[in-house]
Structure prediction request, 324 residues.
Amino acid sequence: MLVDFTVAIRTYNGEKHISEILEKLRSQINTDNISWEIVIVDNNSTDNTAKIIQEYQANWHQSYPLKYYLETKQGASFARKRSIQEARGTLIGFLDDDNLPESNWVAAAYAFGKSHPQAGAYGGQIKPNFEAKPPENFRDIEVFLAIIDRGQTAFCYNQHKQGVLPPGAGLVIRKEAWLESVPDRLLLAGPQGKSLSAKGEDMEILSHIQNAGWEIWYSPELCIYHQIPSWRMERNYLISLVGKSGLTRHHIRMIRLKPWQRPFAFFLYLANDSRQVILHWIKYFTVLNKDTVAACQMALLFSILISPFYTLRIHLSRKLSASN
Prediction:
């Protein structure tokens, strides 16, 4: 039987966070007239995550069910795909195990989807809960930690924010849009466990949905809080995180272009990306060793420049795997 809304939680070794997010979901308001469920996809945890969820299930007396599934294929894209397969909701709201939803998040997410039937996907505000002080000028790179505040007015990315899409944290996807638009196998697997694998699987999913004619929206009424531990403010971590975020840029760019445009765009992007790297290095080379944000931006620009070769490597790796 279909339900109105599914909350899909991807977790990996989330024993420190999973209880908090479940308590936030158990205290949601204004959901009396909404049929909904919680689906947890465990992406191969090795800690006590499964045990904690089982204990919650044994004492779960809510009208909305709490379900648990194990997905052994490591990677965020595999976990999201499993969520889509198991979800009964017409709308599916994705949370990671370090995302805490506002008390009205389920109600606001469902209401927005109901009032915007052409929205294939939509996201909202993502506010940080820092354990440690971020570096100076952190706002210039905060989006790479899925921190989003794009104002108090809802807008459609298709019309106003070309080239920009919402991150996966707190993203709501219409199941119909996914099933008709997203390929069964994505090129990008996304983060695997707690590793810093190149991100981009969410952008790949949203690009396919947008290409199929669905609208992508931002709504400030949807708000979640991203738990950011102190180690995620360390210089080496930030440089690696932001840098690897650029490795998937070429693939996302090509998805969003028509086939005949891609050869021309490749050389235009290559020239412009090279120029960006050179200009940034000239401007900041004297401070790169001490300015964390400038170093992050340098790593990002360089990874964007080499992203075509990263994409080629993935394609070759898949061909080799298929031939063996």
Remarks:
- The mean pLDDT is 94.
